[in-house]
Amino acid sequence: MSKFHARLLELESEIIAKAESQKGLDSLTPDCEILLQTVEKEIGLKLAEVAPHDWRGWLTFRNGVDKLIVCRGRAFKEGGMFSKHRAGFDSNTGADSISDHKRGFNVSPPQDIDHLLVNFGCGDSIRVFLWYGENISPYRLIFEQEMVEDPDENLKEAVAEACVWIAKKPKELTLPQYLDRLKLNDA
Fold first, then answer.
1. Beta bridge partner(s), residue 86
2. CA distances from 59 to 12, 98, 114, 157, 179 (A)
3. What is the dihedral sign for C-alpha 137, 143, 146, 151?
4. Which of 46, 50, 87, 157 has the most CB atoms around its CB within 10 Å?
């Protein structure tokens, strides 16, 4: 199969995935909910949870019923002398993200933070998708699998690999540019 043909198949798959994931699910199946909880547990902290004062790492938060966001975070001190530190986005708006999330507002990572989105779609069967979001670029599909195939381990591996990309990718490169550079270094 030529590189051109492989890229066309990849684009077609991404178009189908976007259409299915935009429909979403009316409600999560128990398996889908358990899958999201598994990823949340593996990552550790959720947005606005109490964190050690010097914490930097990964955090998760739900965006709607069937979407989970994974991104870099850090600890922010709440106001007051005996206040706690909480996990917020690793950006200038991190403290605001905590406040907004605690008030129940819909939050999203700022444009300067690359992040991951886990969501679901339904065509012939329910599938889980993992998307990579950077800057104002549209999401890039990096993983998909049918729920009947028990995607737990494969999804966790894909999330871990994508987190490595986020941590190592220079800010001036897009994900495709970074992956191309990695391929050149491996050759």
1. 50, 76
2. 31, 12, 12, 17, 24
3. negative
4. 87
Evaluate whether 143 touches 154 at the Cβ level (below 8 Å).
yes
* DSSP codes joined into one string, 77-120: EPSSTTPPEEEEESSTTHHHHHHHHHTT------TTS-EEEEEE
Q: Which two tokens stand for residue 101?
A: 């999330």
Per-residue pLDDT tens digits for 5-15? 455 556 666 66
Which of 185, 176, 161, 182 lies closest to 70 in space, CA to CA? 161
pLDDT the model gives residue 174: 83
Cα 163 to Cα 9, 13, 147, 157, 166, distances in angstroms = 25, 23, 22, 10, 5
Instruction: Give the Cα separation of 100 and 48 in Å (integer).
Output: 9
The closest alpha carbon to 107, from 137, 154, 64, belongs to 64
List pLDDT tens digits, range 122-142. 878 899 999 999 877 778 899
